[in-house]
Amino acid sequence: MSNTARRQGTMRAVSLMTSPEVALALAGLVVNVALIIAYLAATDTVVQSLNDTLYPVVWITLSIYLVGSLLRRGPRLTGSSLGVAVALGYGLVLAAIGTPIGLSEESATVMTTWATPGWGPIVMYSVGPIGGTILPFEIIGYAALSYAVGCAVAAGSRGALAGTLGLFTCIGCVLPVIGAVVGAFGGTAAALQPAATSYGLATGLFAVTVLLMLVAIPLESTME
Fold first, then answer.
1. Residue 112 to residue 130: CA distance in whole angstroms
2. Which residues are 123's β-sheet partners?
3. Other Cβ atoms closer than 10 A to 59
4. H helices within the chain, ranges in order?
């Protein structure tokens, strides 16, 4: 490899690591972790699994980076009616095969359960035949993927095909999820976090989908 190629590679790496979207994602990461630590310090929460606690951090951080990259260097979604329509439809599909939207036979109810930031606050609702469980990190992740798919359609790129992988990110969301069950045992309150191991697979698929989106959707170069 020539010295020129090495310098260009180094400049590109530095440009990437110091880009506004990286700074924004890192800020989101720090804030998310700080909120989790503050929540654990302020409550008598017992963390059953560190991985489960941190899955939302991964989803939220990657979502911030994906959307930040597209907003700064990606195709404009606002100029494409088809892109907007596809983004909305894709989001509804993700929500329908995940936990946010489903069928319900319960009466109109809304119940909020607290959990570590990202998992909670969990909102379980039922309105007529529609009901579901809303997890903050899923909503953020689904919204980011939907926006990316819309941008892919607006650009006419293959990124929309990459988005089909995102449909499987809710493989761990199809189970009824109750993020925190608070009770008293020996005078100590214990919050039991969801321990579905399938969320690990879902998180991996989400990360791969974000990577494919960034590769497939044309982004403007920031290099001079």
1. 17
2. 112, 134
3. 28
4. 3-17, 20-42, 50-73, 81-97, 136-155, 159-162, 198-216
**Of the spans 4-8, 58-62, 87-91, which averages the highest pLDDT?**
58-62
Domain count, the chain: 1
Amino acid identity of 183? G
Nearest to 104 by CA among 84, 129, 123, 124: 129
DSSP 134: E
Q: Does residue 52 contact residue 46 with C-beta atoms inside 8 Å? A: no
Instruction: Report which of residues 200 and 11 the model is more confident about.
Output: 200
User: Could you list the residue range(s) of the whole structural domain that residue 32 is in?
Assistant: 3-216
Say which residue the tokens 């399938």 belong to. 198
Residue with tokens 């609702």: 125
Nearest one of 151, 153, 165, 168 to 212, comparing CA atoms: 165
Residue 224 lies in a domain: no
Per-residue model confidence as pLDDT tens digits over 29-44 = 999 999 999 999 999 8
Residue 221: inside a domain: no
Nearest-angstrom CA–CA distance, 87 and 197: 29
Percent above pLDDT 90 for the chain: 26
Which tokens is 215 given?
Answer: 């590769």
